[in-house]
Amino acid sequence: MLALTAQLRADGSGDPAVAGSDEGKYADKDGNPTFKISPDGTVDWYTAIGYTRYTANCMQCHGPDGLGSSFAPSLVDALKTLSYSQFLDIVTNGKKNVDASQELVMPSFGVNPNVMCYIDAIFIYLRARSDGALGRGRPQKSEPRPAGYSAAEDACMG
Questions:
Q1: What pLDDT, on a 0 to 100 scale, did the predictor assign at position 45?
Q2: How far apart are CA 91 and CA 26, in angstroms?
Q3: DSSP assignment string, 102-143
Q4: Which of 82, 95, 128, 158 is 20 to 30 A from 39 via CA?
C-alpha cells in the first residue's frame, strides 16, 4: 500500500515538508530546497525572493504565477512531475522538444547570474505554487532577509 501511495503523489520533488534549515533556507528530507509558509500566510525569504526573480526572468515566457502561456508551458504543472535535479538541469542546459505540430525551446540559462544565483529561490517559489501552498500574486508577508544572504548574493553576482 505504501508503494501505491508514493506512485499516486504527483510532486516530482517529493514531500515538501521542512526537515531542516540553514540560515533561513529550508530543505525537505531529501535535501531539496523547499518552502515554509506560516499559518498566517508569512512565507520564508526564499519563497518571496523567488517570486521576484521568477517575475523578472521567467514570467515573459512561462506566464504570471508560473501558469504558462502561448510561448511556454505551465511550471506549476511541470513541477508536479519534475524533480529538483531535473528542473536544475533544464534551466541550466536548456531543452528542445520538436514534433510535427510544434517546436518548443527552453534556452540555457547556465551562465546567466540573474537566474542561476537565484535558482533555488525560483524553484522554491514554483514548488510552493505547484503544491498549492501559495496562491497567485506577490506574497504579502515574508520572513526577514537571513543574515549572510546579501553577502552570498554579492559573491554570486560578482
A1: 97
A2: 21
A3: -EEEE---TT-HHHHTTHHHHHHHHHHHHTTSS-SS--S-BP
A4: 82
Give the CA distances from residue 156 to residues 22, 92, 102, 116, 151, in Å, rounded to whole numbers and listed in that order.
Answer: 18, 15, 36, 9, 9
Instruction: State the residue range of the domain holding 115.
Output: 2-157
In total, how many domains does the chain have?
Answer: 1
Which of 6, 30, 5, 2 has the alpha carbon at shortest distance from 17? 30
Cell of 85: 535535479
**DSSP element (H, E) containing 22:** strand 20-22
Q: How confident is the model at residue 104 (pLDDT cuts 50, 70, 90)?
A: confident
Amino acid letter, residue 11: D
pTM of the model: 0.88
Residue that is written with C-alpha cell 499559518 in the block:
39
Amino acid identity for residue 82 in this structure: L
- Name the 3-class secondary structure at 21: strand
**Angle at 28 (CA atoms; ends 56, 4), nearest 5 degrees:** 110
Model pLDDT, residue 37: 96
CATH number of the structural domain spanning residue 46:
1.10.760
